[in-house]
Amino acid sequence: MNKRSVADLRLGERAIIQSFNDERMSLKLLEMGCLPGAEICLDGQAPFGDPICLNVSGYCLSMRRSEAATILIE
């Protein structure tokens, strides 16, 4: 079974952060509050799909889809 990432979320879809697949990027994401077990939701996206706006544990966070692809979800 393929793991899903935050980049796979549809608008309004919620998920729980499970882990990361990029060790270097994971430190940056952890500092931004993307902690394993936290709920994450895709709230919006730019007209061409990048960047995206996420709601992580109650606050808005904007990031590139390539960064979101490193966050694995359940």
UniProtKB/TrEMBL annotation:
GO terms for molecular function: transition metal ion binding. Pfam families: FeoA. The lineage of its organism: Bacteria, Pseudomonadati, Bacteroidota, Cytophagia, Cytophagales. This is Iron transporter. The keyword S-adenosyl-L-methionine does not apply. Keywords: Iron. Residues 4-74 form the Ferrous iron transporter FeoA-like domain. The keyword Metal-binding does not apply. It comes from Spirosoma montaniterrae.
